[in-house]
## 1
Amino acid sequence: MSGDLESLRRKARRLVDDFAYYAEHCLRIRPKAGGLVPLKLNAVQQAVHDRLEAQREETGRVRALVLKARQPGVSTYVEGRFFWKVTQAPGIASYILTHSQQATEGLFGMTQRFYDSLPAPLRPRTVAANAKELHFSAPLDSSILVSTAGSKGAGRGGTIQLFHGSEVAHWVDAATHMGGVLQAVPDLPDTEVILESTANGMGGLFYAMWKQAERGDSEYEAIFIPWFEHGEYETEPTEGWEAPADIRSYGEMFGLTPAQLHWAWRKNAELAQACGANSDEICWLFRQEYPATAADAFQLSGHESYIRAELVLKARKWSAQNQGHMPRILGVDVARGGGDKTRVVSRQGRVAGHLCDETIDSKDLMDVAGRVALEIERVDPDAVFVDVTGMGAGVYDALKERGFRGLHAVNFGSKARHDDRYANKRAEIWGRLGEWLDDEGGADIPDEDEWQGSICAPGYSFDSKSRLLMEKKEKIKARVGFSPDVGDALALTFAETVRRRQDHRHLPTHVDDGGYDPLRY
């Protein structure tokens, strides 16, 4: 008998201490197939749980951003986690804010199902139970409230210990809501703020918070789980099925199993039809809804990028060999005001950003010119191409007065060398950048989301003469919330053909020519 009592005590303790155990034994969910089943954590839910628990043990609280694919169960996990905490500790207020009334009703319905399926000894009495709130009676006196972003008073009220923001990237007036609700969460131990969402393109509050967390400039932990970690996203291929070349290349890049690749092919075909894309290529909508990387999720939203994402992903992962004999080139994209920053980027043959990747945050053109001059003196390039469109002319003149060799002014709106193909110089240099990335010899760029986002940001069109025309920087910034400075600086390195100086001092690099012809660009 004493053994049975001890076993019951251990189980009771696990219900208090181990959420995964509690969820499987106490909570019920409605799966996609219907019915009611125990909430047994899937691979994605377990991965998120492990990250949150690690942060809680380290800091005493949780502050997390979760970037997700469609329907991996992250919202279900957070609802279960908060329900577990609210029903076991007194005086805990949990608040859930969703992006739509339908989502609000769905999440509260899930919470109500948790309550109804609890074993009787664990089910607290309620003093309020309506369409959006469960409030438990004393001595527990804890509550769960669900609301919709955009509704009157949403995100404002009393003190909140647990906050779940669902599909934050899709909130109406997200900044206002976040500013209100976060003020209600005290900066104390055992408080939790979990913001989760599918992506909604580059720009907006969730994107800005994510980028800040990625840089380590906030208390939030950025948690991304790729779609292929979710075990449900696979289908067995039919006999004799072969993936189209682009789909197959995508699978090889991320090590997909045949079943995952077949699922991706089918899902991509559905989404490609919805957005009018080629179903034999991974479309922007698939990348956004089922991202393989965080950059994949954010880089596109409703438009086709001029430079395909897979080319940039490949360049991020590829490493070239020594290319020290190739000409060194600097591209200088000068800030145009409005919060923009000057960017200086190097390219040497097949590699970019290795010798120089400098951001200059200054409104003083003489200060910018001086700091660019320092990079020129440090790198000793064969050529420097400066964007003189707008404020860049002043920087170029200041550098020219210093007597630097190989200094060239580039006006983005000027006539292209091959004006039968390109509407202006900016279109031409971006065209050459695209060819460089697509060259079978390979391209090597920093493995950074910022580079990918910037290079993939511009859309494109064609003028009345069927010449390439790149989307204007102002329109890009209005659409995605930032200017593609890295992409423009890199594109500038393709403005003219550059030869290596014979008197060039040696700076070691990690690249090899592999048959690359520097005169091609």
Note: Residues 245-302 form one domain.
## 2
Amino acid sequence: MTKYSFILLDEETEGFLLQLQELGVVDITRARKPIDEDSAAMLEKAGAEKRALTILRKTDFKEDPDREAIEAAAGTAECRGDYSTEAIETEARLKDLQTALYNARKTAKARSPWGEFDKAAIGSLERQGLKIRFYTVPRKSFTESWAELYPLQIISEDKNSVWFVTVAGNSEEYSFPVKECQAPDGSAKDAEEEAARISREIIEQKGLLLKLTEHTDDIGKEYDRILTDLDLYLAGASAEQAAENRINVFTGFAPSGMDGKLAGEFDRMGVFYIAEQAVEEDNPPIKLKNNRFASMFEVLTGMYGMPEYREYDPTPVLAPFFLLFFALCMGDAGYGIILMLISIFLKKKMPGMAKLAPLVMTLGIGTFFIGIFMHSFFGFDLLTVDFIPEWLKKCMLNGDVAGFPAAMVLAIGIGIFNTCVAMVMKAMCYTHRFGLKENLGTWGWTILVVGGIILGGITLLGLLRSEVAKWIFIVLAIISGLGIYIFNKPGRNPFVNIGAGLWDTYNMATGLLGDTLSFIRLYALGLAGGMLGSTFNMLGGMIMDGCPVPGLNWLLFAVIFVIGHTLNIALSCLGAFVHPLRLTFVEFFKNSGYEGSGKAYNPLSIKNGND
């Protein structure tokens, strides 16, 4: 983000805000300060210094075809004492001269077909009763027989046009089939000499600007001094002055990628502003930048809190985990299809909810595939259905692992993986923000827990001998112990560090165990939803079998099936949203060290019905 500071008089404020609103990219806050003649003069002078700095910093004639002449002019140029005023005036003169040069060259080009002539001689002929008329026509329109009407002289011609004049007496009646054009005010040579004179003056002014660039640092120091004096003056000025004798001070933030465009717009507005790179102390607003998938889950990050300026954005990691958690809590492929249909309905029939449609569709697709994996379709067990191919059944989760349901073991495994990812993110982010030296304790716990889990997994898979794994774990424990108990706070009393490490050990042991077991809810909610859906199917089947009226039994079954599963979908969706949100906000954010105390980027803009 780039930080912008604006200072405006009261009467300028409304127009400025309207223009900012049209831009729609600046997040702005406002304060009011008293102003008098002294502070107004300082403000005006600061604006002049800022303008001069802008002019001189973009002054570069290295690619100018007259570079050598400009450098020679700079060597002989003399600067007055007020460098900023001279720079502004020189730039204004340069603009006027460049306009004049363009016009002179344009005039010379327009006169060149008429050749060299003496305007005084033409005036003398007219005083003798002869009228000279000027014409230009396309070559294909020129007719030689025109020379029979009046004396005619072709001045010049090319493949496209013919330039000629006619001579006739002032007293005789004159008629010609072509409309005459305006006579040139002078010869092409006169215009070329004027252009050459202007070019020499432009070189002199460019040389003066180049000379002034040697004083850029002096102007910058003067600019900083004026700003410092102005801030000090405004801070001490009386707050009891008249309302019309006040200025408004604005602080705004905009994405750094728009610096060039905004600088041009602010210069066009003529406002006094200061642009500088935002730092963490400014607490600038946060605009998240994610891909199409992750951006759908930014609403969840916003519910907890936006990241601080140098804090990481958890959305890219939050997104796949939340999708997985939601799908496991729903746990039914049929419910996934219903969610996809709801998404289509929101997009087509409810414009106000259309922004949620992609998220609902994504959650529905995830629920469908996880439902297949968990072999549940509207409460029916797909493993018992004959028409499901065997290869697909082999891809479904079934059976026990170490005497526990495989789905429960999966939920705990996901929790362990989620915690490991969070701990690695915390260590990396804290190192980026505060430095490695201040986070040796954090890295100690990360190496011990994550490294230990990876080492244990490799050993269980038989890829590493247990004796070797033991010594590797001892080395990990020693390295981690140094960070956890000795160097967790460099410069502090070692005994205090040991005590703090022991306290962290207690909190980590109890916290990690509770966080991991908390993920069992993914298994429990999926199991509860599946059992409730199966119960409604069973009730419908019992009524269908017990009803003696043909046709009515199917109707009753359909009513119970639809009502039952509608209730179950509603309950499952509620649980599948709340509990994954809790796992994210509590378990994941706690272990990842995410604070979320930033504020969202909310630019001043023109709102419409779709916002």
Note: Residues 552-592 form the longest helix (41 residues).
## 3
Amino acid sequence: MCGIVAYVGSKQCANLMLEGLKRLEYRGYDSAGIATIDQGKITVVKTVGRVANLEDKLEQVGGIRGSIGMCHTRWATHGGVTDPNAHPHTDDKSGICLIHNGIIENYVALKTYLEEKGHKFKSQTDTEVLAMLIGELYDGDLEAAVQAALREVTGAYGIVVMCEKEPDTLVAARKGSPLMVGVGDGEFVIASDGSAIIAHTSHAFTLEDYQVVKVTPKGFRTSTIHNVPVTPKVQQLEIELEQIELGSFSHFMQKEIFEQPKALRNTLRGRTDAREGKIVLGGVSNFAKQLTATRRIVLTGQGTALHAATIGEYLIEDLARIYSVAEYGSEFRYRNPIIEENTLVIAVSQSGETADTLAALIEAKERGALALGVVNVVGSSIARETDAGVYLRVGPEIGVASTKAFTGQVAVLTLLGLYLARRRHMSGDECSDLIRELEQIPDKMERILEHDAKVRKVTEKYVDRENWLFLGRGYNYPTALEGALKLKEISYIHAEGMPAAEMKHGPIALINDGMPAVFIANKGRQYEKVISNIQEVKSRGGRIIAVATEGDEHIKKMADDVFYIPDVPECLSPMLAVVPLQLMAYHAAVIRGHDVDKPRNLAKSVTVE
């Protein structure tokens, strides 16, 4: 979602903060702003558009000075995309300046109260209401005013606040929206993501929900919103600067597609033992008996993570013979879900901060479920809320359209499926065979990536078509969903994914002459059925793009274009079948001239409902 960077120390901080803000551009936003305190006065500059627009505006006004400040990229929730609605926001009384991620749910009541007190508002945002409330409560102690204001607030927030009357102090707080504090030598960087901190310090701590930190160049104090002192754990950041830089690639999405073989090797490293037919998952080992006794599994996620979860549903049922179901997190929490004894809930998320998934997880835990997390970001909200979990270990993912996190999620769910299967009924030899096949996936993925130029050439033939179908069966029905999502996310082409058999029950009416239909037609239990579905589309004028198993010459007679993937057991095929679909989406976006890494209206981490 929105990006936060703030600094206090001895350096002129404007350029430092803007560089950090650029590292957060992948999160998705529509306006940007910056504020500093210099000689006891706050200066605010903000504008709609990209950080580059903000830099142009700063140049027009002659720059901005100060060794304490904050900057922000906003993804609009309350109020349109306008300069007045951009952050930072100030109050009209006490020299308060504030940036905010999240949503203040009771802002209407608070605004009415403040208007009755005589406050005049300049924006349509909930954030300005919080700035005014802090200003109304300010009585010479910024930390106390922030604590008091947050005791009146319902909703989600990650905020940083400064005040002209305390020109060396930042106060930050968090509830439901990630925020971390980088600890340097006489300087501190507060940010919503470690990628904005790592260039300045490798040590940081994460604020927990309902915690407040007061920071000056001399040090920091951490407490709750009720002013109960707490001691944070300062840790070394696990990311490196080179991981969040483009290197020789044109876009982060392109880089992350090509990083997948290496990323999957990291995911699997130390977790597979083919010789013994054994899966080693230290993150869940303390719950082995409970996992073995599981009778029902609910996998929950949103977007790409839900597609990975759906593959996980197929995997776990097939391998471990446990009833499994994948659910939208956003729907799960608002139903009256049935959580029986020995129910396991698996929350799947790249960021570990997805609000809907986190809320579903909490709901399931409150009803007695054992909770596992499959996330990428160490120390994220979901990771902290679960009973146990397995990290993806794929490295930072910057592109908004998830790629390596998806294949990492599928790999981890495969490990979990094998772990459960081996403890319940699967023989050691069968498990060993599947582990050996799984360990070869990264090498086979590299072979697919070698055909990138062919994928681009095929994409060029169809990129002007505005309606596509993605069709698969069994394990690769969710892969079809993911291929369609990738195409529409970044190329803005309308694409629909579905089970291939479902096409006859209505969507076949959409097919007209030249319509691209992407079939995942690798060898498997339903191969002949998929071939029949291909014939149905072809006979109605559709153009067939097939993802098929190497050596399948028969499919060339029906398909207009074929992308081949190496032969693997069917349960492992989604990790390979998705790669040409990712490449096709990437090339479609580039050819159409879109901003691949920052698609319109989207945010990397959706931390509000």
Note: The CA atoms of residues 127 and 580 lie 43 Å apart.
